Amino acid sequence: MDEAKHHVVVVGAGFGGLELTRALAGAPVRITMIDKRNHHLFQPLLYQVATTSLATSEIAWPIRHLLRKRKDVTTLLGNVTGVDRAGKRVLLEDGSSVAYDTLVLATGARHAYFGHDEWEPFAPGLKTLEDATTIRRRILLAFEEGERETDPAKRQALLTLVIVGGGPTGVELAGTIVELAHDTLRGEFRNIDTRQARVVLIEAGDRILANFAPELSAYAQKALERLGVTVELGRPVTHLDAEGVVFGDTHLPARTILWAAGVAASPAAEWLGATADRAARVLVEPDLTVPGSPEIFVIGDTAHLLRPDGKPVPGVAPAAKQQGKHVAATIKARLAGDTAPRPFRYRHDGDLATIGKRAAAIDFGWIKLTGWLAWWLWGIAHIYFLIDFRNRLAVTLSWLWIYFTGQRSARLITQGDGGKG
Amino acid sequence: MDEAKHHVVVVGAGFGGLELTRALAGAPVRITMIDKRNHHLFQPLLYQVATTSLATSEIAWPIRHLLRKRKDVTTLLGNVTGVDRAGKRVLLEDGSSVAYDTLVLATGARHAYFGHDEWEPFAPGLKTLEDATTIRRRILLAFEEGERETDPAKRQALLTLVIVGGGPTGVELAGTIVELAHDTLRGEFRNIDTRQARVVLIEAGDRILANFAPELSAYAQKALERLGVTVELGRPVTHLDAEGVVFGDTHLPARTILWAAGVAASPAAEWLGATADRAARVLVEPDLTVPGSPEIFVIGDTAHLLRPDGKPVPGVAPAAKQQGKHVAATIKARLAGDTAPRPFRYRHDGDLATIGKRAAAIDFGWIKLTGWLAWWLWGIAHIYFLIDFRNRLAVTLSWLWIYFTGQRSARLITQGDGGKG
């Protein structure tokens, strides 16, 4: 590789980082892609791994395989610990560092407990493959322990599964878990009836899917309740532990609690010593650069940018992709001598959420869809967006199998917590 | 379930335990199946998970799903810690116990280091899904670290992968790993040439596949060497650690060492206070009962039984299945009033091993097969033996994909050691 070429270092091979790298194809640059994982994760389908519908390898691909044809890209597995803005170097955990001409931080977000980190052991969130296999293990173990438990109260607590947070992830988890319990596992136990399992979705606000149009929130709630989910609105969770969860004046004994209530950005702001919002997102300039460092861009869930209407750009895959494309264009323009700032404008394509395997809610703004048609549209869209052809095929087969047999393919409990398997 | 019925407790849902349960269908008994995992594992293909060819869920199925139609069977996830022979109870880790009329122990084997347990952290073996994902992680990390490593000696150590033990597992691991390095990963790295990776198979004896006919051992060795594997014979490993392995007077620097050199039985002998052989296998009567306890059977890798020719019954899936069937027949005969001892006779069907994705060695005794024909036969046989139709389909697709593209579907490094992912 031509060492003399302008060196773009990209940290994070999520939707934003990959889109940026794609859009830089053919540009007079050399690229180093650094990620602490060896795989790109298709997060929109992560909840399906957590609920035994898909295998881990169906929604994750080796980054260097995705970029294998790009001889201008070097992929490194490494843990970034800081950025030397003056020396223009990215610092890695192993003590080495990588020099850059342009730096793009696309390091995403983790789930957050807003001052209640002590809740994490009892209520795992869903951001990584390990999170998904941990949740999968907890859900399946609850039923296994229920089958052995003789005390009725303890058994009911084992068969009560709580999801905290009524956003798309919470809704999708609740809908799939209730199907898993009432449909997939039915008839396989001798001492419990899995249809007695309670799935409770707790949302602090006054409706689920708050970003969607109100009628879609109402539809999604009805659809969940039809599946057997109990939806609790308007009372935030004030305490949770191994025994259960407290919201308002209700104490609900539950041995399985899942966290879908909030995220915080990666430590990029700390690395840069930059100003961040409450969720640790870097406050970027309209052109997505870091104030004072025009050669450093922050995109995706790690960036905080307001839209003309004053609302923040949402932390969704399309926003990250649009920002990746935009920054790539900015880099190319600069190399061509055009250094004028290029403000980013977010185009909102719409919001989607599935409710079980029969219904979905889609809000394109100009049109709103619900029911089985929306579900199929959602499915086709997601299969289309799956990067790798073979995974499209594998996921399509897995889904058709589940759709027609109700059986799920990845019902594995592997030992130890923290996401083995 | 009719509590009055004769209660058969089966510990272990491997090939032996499942075959026994199947063969007891319709018998006047109720069955409790206890396993410490929730899944049956198709161990003959475990090396393909370790080498990124198959996903974990393609070779493992929930036990209670396999037995869902058997209303006479209760499946329990539980860890057996002992057997009360006088009180006829199986003791579980959680303090509870299960009474039995007839007990069948089919608890299998673990890999063993023969007095060198300190080697385990440096040379993981391959018996569980976690073992497989640990090995997968180590292999992939070696190349990732090699891409970052600048010291030539350290880099060579990272690109040297050692397999200890020249049995079928060692041969299959070596052949697949060398293909992974030289074929699958080729062209995806910028600082290393994965074709420079060295794969070394170390066997203490004078030939690999010692149970096979000598000409097949010679064929397998040539086939491995053609793929690029270095085969070292006649010198046992005397030391190994994080830096490498010592055999004879050779010290080979290697950062990835895999253990395929031996197994020891589960602690069943301890639970029973029964006599065991060097590998901890229970010395059973000709009818597979435990001396002094005709109501307790031990089958599969946990049992030690000599054949008429003085050779022990091998620890392979067909032997475990035959013993499961035999014990089921004995139980039925007893319930019908025929209590005469029924000695077990092992029928040897043959030995198989694959070498990479183009060759295999099959020894049926009366006929010996090698080359691509043997490979296809092996593949068809294994797909046939896969229990669940959907997995047959999934595995077939995965294999055809690998066969024609050289690409593997499960190249995931997940965090933490001990088999996450």
Automatic annotation (TrEMBL), chains A, B:
It catalyses: a quinone + NADH + H(+) = a quinol + NAD(+). Its EC number is 1.6.5.9. Residues 348-406 form the External alternative NADH-ubiquinone oxidoreductase-like C-terminal domain. It is an enzyme of class 1 (oxidoreductase). Keywords: FAD, Flavoprotein, Membrane, NAD, Oxidoreductase, Transit peptide, Transmembrane, Transmembrane helix. GO terms for molecular function: oxidoreductase activity. The chain crosses the membrane at residues 366-387. Residues 7-324 form the FAD/NAD(P)-binding domain. Belongs to the NADH dehydrogenase family. This is NADH:ubiquinone reductase (non-electrogenic).
